[in-house]
Design goal:
Elements: E1 5-10, H1 18-35, E2 38-43, E3 46-51, H2 54-61, E4 67-77, H3 80-96, E5 106-113, H4 120-135, E6 146-153, E7 156-160, E8 164-165, E9 177-181, H5 187-197, E10 201-208, H6 215-228, E11 238-243, H7 245-254, H8 260-278, E12 283-285, H9 298-304, E13 312-313, H10 321-331, H11 334-337, H12 357-366, H13 369-377
Parallel strand pairs: 5-6, 9-10, 9-12, 10-11, 12-13
Antiparallel strand pairs: 1-3, 1-4, 2-3, 4-7, 4-8, 6-7
Helix pairs in contact: 3-4, 5-10, 7-8, 7-13, 8-13
Length: about 375
């Protein structure tokens, strides 16, 4: 079916004040234009997109945060004669595509903005009669098999039958930058996605634990970032890698072995905090899910975050593995994360799960944590 444009809609953006809504609309348009080649107009909570390539546009719009739905549509002028002519041709196309026949129950959904000499109900009744005359399909306003939308906006009218769901959320880049600790696992990429959905631009920090992890882990992390980039139109993810293996060796050799995971996570937060200041980010994000692994018990969370002077968000904290995996599968990172990259060989046989902060402080001192982290930080390439 040949369409003239795509009508896109936003959700909570419309609840903002006029000043904020205008700023968010501009950002949303910028993000769309960064993804697809199109002319774009905005009018009364609708974004009218005239793409060069419709199929490509429909595919990419499903990954633009801030859009709740969008519809490929045909356009005509707001006169009953032109609406009848356009709607008749539209029904012909629906019939050719097997979407309507004489047994298909249908409903006309009419929306009208502007001043006209007819009501929405009158136009809906008229449009319905056009369809009945064309194909003799029965009208069913309560439980239709097919809904046809007729949207009138002043002198222009748009006809469509699909409302394709968008990802929702806020336009990417409206809420500042965050440092996300992203590994090659399942959880942290989902945490990054969820913060992107809330409008945050992501700086991805990967701690390369070589020789305790394999080069496959580094490659998988890179592939995960590339997958997440598909959702980052207008505010691409910046990736930073820190060589973390020497720091881990100091954890294992100069502190109680059971503390390795606690000291590892503590060090990650400290490096992320310093990186946040250097890159003007406002928060740290990780993939913690309460109680899932040793470093994510409440006592360990408290101990690992001590003296971190940047807010730490854990958007997955109340989700279980099944819920997290479902999201990972939906966004395309799960197939990458489930590759066997050997895991981390630095994990002790019996890791600490109930860390005492005073003992953690002693362990940090015994391994000279601050000095070792400074050495690691110097390995980050900007």
């Amino acid at each position: 079916m040949k369409h003239d444009l795509i009508i896109a809609r936003y959700g909570e953006v419309g609840l903002k004040s006029h000043k904020v809504r205008s700023r968010f609309e501009r950002r949303l348009v910028k993000n769309i234009q960064a993804s697809i080649d199109a002319e774009i107009d905005v009018d009364q909570a609708r974004i009218f997109i005239f793409p060069e390539n419709f199929d490509e546009a429909l595919k990419k719009l499903s990954k633009i945060f801030g859009l709740v739905s969008f519809s490929p549509a045909v356009a005509t002028h707001t006169t009953f004669d032109e609406i009848e002519d356009t709607l008749s041709k539209y029904v012909d196309e629906l019939e050719k595509n097997g979407l309507i026949n004489k047994n298909t129950k249908f409903a006309i959904r009419c929306r009208r903005v502007g001043s006209h000499d007819f009501s929405s109900q009158e136009l809906a009744a008229y449009a319905g009669s056009v369809v009945v005359k064309k194909i003799e399909s029965p009208v069913d306003l309560t439980n239709p098999d097919l809904e046809i939308f007729v949207e009138v906006r002043d002198n222009d009218t748009y006809i469509y039958h699909e409302k394709i769901q968008g990802p929702g959320g806020l336009p990417l880049g409206t809420q500042g930058k965050v440092i996300v600790l992203i590994s090659s696992g399942i959880d942290s990429p989902v945490a990054a996605y969820m913060m992107m959905k809330r409008g945050c631009q992501v700086i991805a920090l990967y701690c390369d634990n070589n020789p305790y992890t394999t080069p496959d882990a580094l490659k998988n992390n890179e592939d995960i970032i590339n997958q997440l980039q598909k959702y980052a139109s207008g505010a691409p993810i910046k990736r930073r890698v820190v060589n973390y293996g020497d720091y881990l060796s100091q954890c294992k050799s100069k502190a109680p072995e059971r503390m390795t995971c606690v000291l590892c996570k503590s060090g990650m937060y400290q490096i992320a905090s310093k990186l946040a200041k250097d890159m003007h980010a406002l928060a740290i994000v990780d993939g913690s899910s309460l109680g899932q692994v040793a470093s994510q018990t409440l006592p360990n969370i408290l101990a690992t975050r001590e003296k971190v002077d940047v807010p730490i968000f854990s958007p997955l904290i109340g989700l279980d593995k099944v819920e997290i995996t479902r999201i990972a599968d939906e966004i395309g990172t799960f197939e990458i994360s489930k590759r066997d990259d050997g895991g981390c060989k630095a994990v002790p046989r019996y890791p600490e799960t109930n860390a005492d902060i005073s003992l953690v402080r002693e362990a940090k001192e015994s391994m000279h944590q601050k000095e070792e982290l400074n050495k690691a930080y110097e390995t980050i390439k900007f």
